[in-house]
């Protein structure tokens, strides 16, 4: 009886709106304001920042790998996977992304359904709209195992 109650509790938790399974903040984090901001409003104006994902000479990279924004600014990240492999863009604190990268090593096919991340197949495009509400230095990484270690990370500096 105890195990069936546990299963029902897990099912109920998964059905709750706002519960995420695989975000940089760990399982079950909400999409409220984070240390690095909050999901943007796609209907409001945003500065467009284009980010290319690629592999070259044994390295994996984002171009550009450094972005400066103003506190309170909304950014529309236009993502293009120009490479031949799947890549992802995960925005977070460095600590969160490193921790989530370790989780990804255990489950490399983990699906993301978070407003701060997007996984793209080769030659595909996507976008993330994000509002940076706090000053600081933040990370964006490809957390597919081996990709960050091959150089696929960057920095957002919020002034």
UniProtKB/TrEMBL annotation:
CDD domains: Cupredoxin_like_2. Pfam families: Copper-bind. Residues 50-159 form the Blue (type 1) copper domain. Keywords: Copper, Metal-binding, Signal. One of its GO terms (molecular function) is copper ion binding. Residues 1-22 form the signal peptide. Coiled coil: none annotated. InterPro entries: BlueCu_1 (IPR000923), Cu-binding_ET (IPR050845), Cu_oxidase_CS (IPR033138), Cupredoxin (IPR008972). Residues 24-43 are annotated as: Disordered. This is Copper resistance protein. It comes from Vineibacter terrae.
């Amino acid at each position: 009886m105890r195990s069936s109650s546990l299963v029902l509790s897990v099912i109920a938790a998964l059905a709750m709106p706002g519960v995420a399974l695989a975000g940089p903040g760990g399982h079950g984090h909400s999409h409220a304001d984070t240390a690095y901001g909050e999901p943007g409003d796609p209907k409001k104006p945003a500065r467009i920042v284009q980010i290319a994902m690629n592999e070259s000479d044994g390295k994996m990279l984002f171009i550009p790998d450094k972005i400066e924004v103003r506190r309170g600014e909304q950014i529309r990240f236009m993502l293009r996977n120009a490479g031949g492999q799947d890549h992802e863009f995960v925005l977070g604190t460095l600590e969160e992304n490193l921790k989530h990268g370790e989780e990804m090593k255990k489950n490399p096919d983990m699906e993301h359904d978070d407003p701060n991340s997007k996984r793209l197949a080769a030659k595909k495009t996507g976008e993330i709209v994000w509002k940076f509400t706090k000053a600081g230095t933040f990370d964006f990484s490809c957390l597919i195992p081996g990709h960050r270690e091959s150089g696929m990370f960057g920095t957002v500096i919020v002034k």
